[in-house]
């Protein structure tokens, strides 16, 4: 295929890193955004260039900040003619279990800005480029059952942002369909940190001698779905909320804890 460019937010580690690897394998040039992981981003960029011959630039920026989103897109436009794929992987998350009234105003606003408003900022800047070429892919990340707007105890801000993002993703899909732009949300299951950069083969191997019938989800599981959605022939898939959970009721399990 002709070289296309993908911008991956939070692309230096975890699921973002696995996605960058898969898209580099597919021939994409890349813009890898990171917030604090500069060394990881530079190491990954060098690895992808050496292994796949793809051009990679790294751009520091906090997607929760509008000005940083503008700077990230400007850096991408300086390096490439256009941005063909936006993967919004970055999203702030507070691990501490807190009821809604225990969030500070600053925490609440930061979670909503980083998980919801950032997609508006980046999409507003990138969609005009996609419209000109009549082609584009926007992929957001959610959580299990986000499209049903469930309540999620101790995760009020994150859940509110992601359920809003599910609606926004579907709205973009409808509004931009005439321009050949698709928008979909991928909802990972409960993938623990140490498995976010692992491969499916490693997960299968870990089952050896284990009585569990459920293998651990990996970053590769999510990256494969994202890469599939970027394909030329995936244009019939848009406005979809796609769970990648291994068939596990992730939110249900969380509620029982």
Key phrases:
257 residues, alpha/beta, Rossmann fold, 7-stranded parallel beta sheet, 8 helices, 7 strands, 15% strand
Give the termini distance in whole angstroms: 47 Å
Largest sheet: 7 strands, parallel
CATH domain fold name? Rossmann fold
Any idea what the radius of gyration is? 18 Å
Q: Element order, helices and strands? A: EHEHEHEHEHEHHEH
**Annotation field: number of helices:** 8
Q: What would you call the shape?
A: globular
Question: Total domains, how many?
Answer: 1
Q: List unreliable stretches of 5+ residues.
A: none
- Our estimate of the beta-strand percent is 5-15%
Strand order of the largest sheet: 3-2-1-4-5-6-7
CATH architecture: 3-Layer(aba) Sandwich
Q: Into which percent range does the helicity of residues fall?
A: 40-55%
CATH superfamily: NAD(P)-binding Rossmann-like Domain
- What's the total number of strands? 7
Structure report:
The chain is α/β, with parallel strands linked by helices. It has one domain: Rossmann fold, CATH 3.40.50. It is built from 8 helices and 7 strands; from the N terminus they run E-H-E-H-E-H-E-H-E-H-E-H-H-E-H. The protein has a 7-stranded parallel beta sheet with strand order 3-2-1-4-5-6-7, with helices on both faces. Helix 1 packs across helix 7, helix 3 packs parallel to helix 4 and helix 4 runs parallel beside helix 5. The longest helix is centred in the middle third of the chain and has 29 residues. It is globular. The mean pLDDT is 93.
């Amino acid at each position: 295929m002709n070289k296309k460019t993908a911008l991956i937010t939070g692309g230096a580690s975890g699921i973002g890193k696995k996605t960058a690897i898969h898209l580099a394998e597919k021939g994409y040039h890349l813009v890898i955004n990171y917030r604090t992981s500069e060394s990881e981003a530079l190491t990954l960029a060098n690895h992808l260039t050496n292994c796949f011959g793809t051009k990679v630039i790294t751009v520091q920026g906090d997607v929760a900040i509008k000005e940083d989103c503008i700077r990230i897109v400007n850096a991408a436009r300086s390096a490439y003619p256009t941005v063909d794929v936006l993967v919004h992987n970055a999203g702030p998350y507070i691990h501490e279990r807190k009821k809604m009234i225990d969030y500070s105003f600053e925490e609440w606003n930061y979670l909503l800005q980083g998980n919801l408003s950032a997609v508006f900022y980046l999409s507003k800047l990138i969609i005009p480029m996609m419209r000109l070429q009549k082609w584009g892919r926007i992929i957001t990340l959610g959580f299990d059952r986000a499209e049903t707007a469930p309540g999620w105890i101790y995760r009020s801000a994150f859940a509110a942002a992601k359920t809003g993002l599910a609606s926004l993703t579907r709205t973009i899909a409808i509004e931009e369909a005439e321009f050949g732009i698709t928008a979909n949300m991928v909802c990972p299951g409960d993938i623990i940190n140490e498995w976010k950069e692992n491969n499916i083969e490693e997960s299968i191997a870990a089952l050896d001698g284990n009585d569990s019938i459920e293998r651990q989800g990996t970053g590769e599981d999510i990256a494969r779905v994202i890469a599939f959605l970027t394909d030329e022939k995936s244009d019939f898939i848009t406005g979809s909320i796609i769970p990648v959970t291994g068939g596990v009721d992730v939110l249900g399990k969380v509620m029982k804890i």
